[in-house]
Amino acid sequence: MPADNSILAFLATVVVGLLAVAGSEPAGPAGVGTTAALDELLLEYDANIRPPGDGPTKVGVSAGIMIADWCSNRLSVTYFFRQSWTDSRLKFKGYKEIRVAMPSKLWDPALYSPMEVDFQLLNDGYIVIKPDGEVSSTQRGTSVLPCVLTADDVYQHDGKLNCTLSIGSFGNDSDQVLLHWDKPPSLSMAARKQCSIVETKEFVLPTHNGNYSQAQVVLEVNTGVTKALLNHVIREMTKS
Asked: Which residues are in the Neurotransmitter-gated ion-channel ligand-binding domain (predicted)?
């Protein structure tokens, strides 16, 4: 049945009114800043200079461990890694955030794992700048760490041993960069079948080249090389 003209007119009036109210409200910050907004923000920015402020730049780190695979005295850890710091030179207004496609445009603390024997970056991740100048970077990678199984680990701990994932800043001593855990590292359901978190640490490591800040997570890894398995292998090898 065709709608009455008076009803249509009423609905049209309501819609126009709602649009007028919406238009009279102050606009909130736009979602994501454009490339032009980033270029303007970085106009006088020098990525070679550390963020200004008293004392070292405080860098918060967190890690979400997805896989921890032990084999032949090495532990392969695949994890999401997040780092964040505040740079007052990067404060802005008008957007909720600005995303950075090229990490080289910004200063970063050059974090790495001092103990790793190999590293593979699985994706470049992303960098986000917040209006207060907070910079956060998230990446996914795989670190291969030395993790030597001894006879004592087999007989005393049934094939379980502790392995350490360390995070440090390359080329920045503790007077320049200070690391801390933003929140404790986490384990995926798959990783929990392979390892557990024993403890986390934050400390300054003295070396002959200076003092360096490190953050560590100690993992108890289940290698699968149990006392029963080792005894079975020994029996098989000593059969006449």
From this structure: 36-203
